[in-house]
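Q: Please design a sequence for this.
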């Protein structure tokens, strides 16, 4: 059974795949879509932004309000590389 959690609460430096995402054009332009591989590089203090690694290609910071609306699930072990 796969557990889905908010991207904001995702464990740092662990690979996840996006399971749902709000309909925000900017996120799609950044490459964040359902199924995208992401990992949290850093979560800034006091409700600050989350620094994401997207598809092991680049990093981007998104606000807590958006990060809490994105749900993720753990990547299967055979897809981690």
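A: Design:
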């Amino acid at each position: 059974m796969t557990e889905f959690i908010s991207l904001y609460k995702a464990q740092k430096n662990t690979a996840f795949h996006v399971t749902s995402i709000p309909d925000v054009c900017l996120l799609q332009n950044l490459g964040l879509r359902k199924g995208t591989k992401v990992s949290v590089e850093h979560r800034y203090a006091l409700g600050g932004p989350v620094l994401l690694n997207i598809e092991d290609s680049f990093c981007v910071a998104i606000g807590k309000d958006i990060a809490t609306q994105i749900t993720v699930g753990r990547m299967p072990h055979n897809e981690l590389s």
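Q: Thanks. Anything notable?
A: The first strand starts at residue 4 and ends at 6. The chain has one domain: 4-75.
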